[in-house]
């Protein structure tokens, strides 16, 4: 195949999931950092909002908005906090400046399998 990325040629099965308002491309064995999940570390979690699945070479199934009867299973490895984001506000010549920070709560998830 000419012009297609290597993951199309290898027949790798992957899915696009949505969690925390963001979309992630995952396949079995991947480790991803997503927004904090309501599950303890070491427990499994099922992602039910699957937007797209590649089944075999070049064959895709997409949902409107989700693919029916497809879930992604993963294990929550740990809960972490992301890097600190600094916000600095200032109005020149007025003596006003304000510095605040934010650290996002994250969960590290290892994808076990794509079911369906």
Instruction: Write down the overall geometry.
Output: elongated
| Strand element count | 10
Largest sheet: 4 strands, antiparallel
Helix percentage: under 10%
Low-confidence stretches: none
Mean of residue pLDDT values: 90
Number of helices: 1
Structure class: mainly beta
Topology readout:
Blueprint: H1 6-9, E1 14-19, E2 22-27, E3 31-35, E4 44-47, E5 50-56, E6 59-62, E7 71-81, E8 85-91, E9 96-102, E10 105-115
Antiparallel strand pairs: 1-2, 1-5, 3-10, 4-7, 5-6, 7-10, 8-9
What attributes characterize this protein structure?
single chain, about 120 residues, mainly beta, 4-stranded antiparallel beta sheet, 1 helix, about 60% strand
Note down, in words, how this protein is organized.
With 116 residues, the protein is mostly beta strands. It has a domain at 6-79 and 109-115. Helices cover 3% and strands 59% of the residues. It contains one helix and ten strands; from the N terminus they run αββββββββββ. It has one helix spanning 6-9, and strands at 14-19, 22-27, 31-35, 44-47, 50-56, 59-62, 71-81, 85-91, 96-102, 105-115. It has a four-stranded antiparallel sheet, with no helix packed on it. A four-stranded antiparallel sheet has the order 3-10-7-4, with no helix packed on it. The radius of gyration is 19 Å and the shape is elongated. The two termini are 27 Å apart. The model has no long low-confidence stretch (mean pLDDT 90).
Brief write-up:
By secondary structure, the chain is mainly beta.
